[in-house]
Write a structure and sequence with these properties.
The chain is α/β, with parallel strands linked by helices. It has helices spanning 33-36, 49-52, 57-63, 80-90, 105-120, 138-142, 145-150, 163-166, 169-172, 185-197, 210-219, 224-238, 252-259, 271-285, 289-301, 306-321, 327-342, 347-360, 366-381, 396-400, 415-418, and strands at residues 70-73, 94-99, 126-131, 153-159, 176-179, 207-208, 249-250. It has three domains: 21-179, Rossmann fold (3-Layer(aba) Sandwich), CATH 3.40.50; 185-259, Helicase, Ruva Protein, domain 3 (Orthogonal Bundle); 271-360, Zinc Finger, Delta Prime, domain 3 (Up-down Bundle), CATH 1.20.272.10. The protein is built from 21 helices and seven strands. Helix 11 runs parallel beside helix 13 (252-259) and helix 12 packs across helix 13. The radius of gyration is 31 Å and the shape is flat.
């Protein structure tokens, strides 16, 4: 069933929207606490000061009546929808909301048609808020392009995924991107205190101990929605009529019972996944075993595949340790086999051992850099012929054509004689790729 903000019988610009002034009276006690206490004014938002203070870019967007399309990129519970709510009430525009989860291309086209009609009738300009923008496919995102560019609509997109990877480049180039970070614990506690006092929230019906608030803030991992849901659950436990010990004070014990087993914020395919493995690898590169162990534990406790971590360690063994400790590659492969054979949770011990060893090992990226230098020459000479003396000559015809002429097996000939021939195309024959570094362990004499 298609969801729409508009009926054909309603004049353009006169529709009641999700985020209009009548929204407040639609809030009721059956709604989740997070929905009931959603801020309606910019001064009621906590966090994101660099974006929302008097000279901040989002404040300017509101002051300029929402004149430029933008994308709000941030983790769940960071305030993307709340900011859209505030834009709707603070700008003189017709505000429409769509969700990429529940709406389709037909809905999008209809709203754009209505926007054109409003302009033609001298009505209000349209701001189109699209929640979960990254869930629109390429054709749906492409459908926005001409209308964003022409000013038919001003788009506000909200996404939890990196727009660089999930929004088509032409649309991304027409929008300003604002990154909302996870809220800090201080901001979370302020949000919780407001919810306790808010007449649409708990209306001071209970009190919450400071240590309980602190635990909620820590466990929320920067997500205001999670914090408010935890508060609501904790209040329910503390005031449970079936519990003879019920009272109107929420304690740390109530919160612990509500949390039970808090989930680490992590995604197996998104930014947290890549950011955390990046932190792990860079800690190894800095020879910082404690930090590397921390990020390893974060990944494993969040459910990361140990085989993914093992593959990255194999890469690290060659890219970052390299010839400084050639046995590291063997150890990484053995570690991968061991973690696969043993499985979790014991595989964590194997990964911890290899992590500490790699962090403390000497480092050399000489072969990694050497390959990149060779690759640069390949890009310039990828169609150059293989030197004749290096070509295979399995037939008499090929020998007659000169294939293999001049080649002398270095095992049975003087190596210096062989070196008189170039083993690469002439134009790059003198370029040097490998430069030995001080940590490289080589059995042969030092290479100039």
């Amino acid at each position: 069933m298609r969801s729409s903000n508009r009926s054909n019988r309603v004049p353009p610009g006169m529709q009641q929207q999700m985020f209009d002034d009548s929204g407040k009276h639609l809030r009721h006690s059956n709604m989740p606490l997070a929905a009931r206490v959603r801020p309606e004014k910019i001064e009621n938002i906590y966090g994101h000061d660099e974006l929302l203070d008097g000279s901040g870019p989002l404040s300017y967007f509101i002051q300029s009546n929402g004149s430029q399309s933008l994308i709000l990129w941030g983790p769940p519970g960071s305030g993307k929808t709340t900011l859209a709510n505030i834009v709707s009430s603070a700008t003189t525009t017709h505000f429409v909301t769509l969700s990429a989860v529940t709406n389709n291309l037909a809905d999008l086209r209809q709203e754009i048609t209505y926007a054109k009609e409003r302009i033609a009738a001298g009505g209000l300009r349209t701001i189109l808020f699209i929640d979960e923008l990254h869930r629109f496919n390429r054709s749906q995102q492409d459908g926005l392009l001409p209308h964003v560019e022409s000013g038919t609509i001003t788009m506000i997109g909200a996404t939890t995924e990196n727009p660089s990877f999930h929004v088509v480049a032409p649309l991304l180039s027409r929008c300003r991107v604002f990154q909302l970070t996870s809220l800090n614990e201080e901001a979370i506690i302020q949000i919780l205190c407001d919810a306790i006092e808010n007449e649409m929230g708990l209306n001071n019906a209970v009190s919450v101990n400071e240590d309980a608030l602190a635990l909620i803030a820590v466990s929320a991992a920067g997500d205001a929605r999670v914090a408010l849901n935890t508060l609501e659950a904790s209040v329910g436990i503390a005031t449970d009529g079936n519990n003879e010990n019920n009272h109107d004070v929420v304690t740390k014990q109530h919160v612990e019972f509500a949390l039970h087993d808090p989930v680490l914020r992590y995604d197996r395919k998104g930014d947290y996944h890549f950011d955390t493995i990046s932190a792990f690898i860079k800690s190894l590169r800095f020879s910082d075993p404690d930090s590397a162990l921390y990020w390893l534990a974060r990944m494993l406790e969040a459910g990361e595949d140990p085989q993914f971590i093992s593959r990255r360690l194999i890469i690290f063994a060659s890219e970052d340790i390299g010839l400084a400790d050639p046995s590291a590659l063997n150890m990484a492969v053995a570690s991968q086999q061991a973690t696969y054979f043993v499985g979790m949770p014991e595989a964590r011990i194997i990964l911890a051992e290899i992590t500490v060893y790699f962090a403390l090992a000497k480092k050399s990226n000489s072969t990694y850099e050497a390959y990149n230098r060779a690759l640069s020459d390949v890009e310039q000479t990828r169609n150059d012929d293989v030197p004749m003396h290096l070509r295979n000559a399995p037939t008499s015809l090929m020998k007659e054509l000169g294939y293999g002429v001049g080649y002398k097996n270095p095992h049975s000939n003087d190596l210096n004689e062989q070196n008189s021939l170039s083993n690469r195309p002439e134009k790059i024959a003198k370029n040097k790729y490998y430069f030995q570094k001080k940590n490289d362990q080589l059995d042969s004499e030092e290479i100039d």
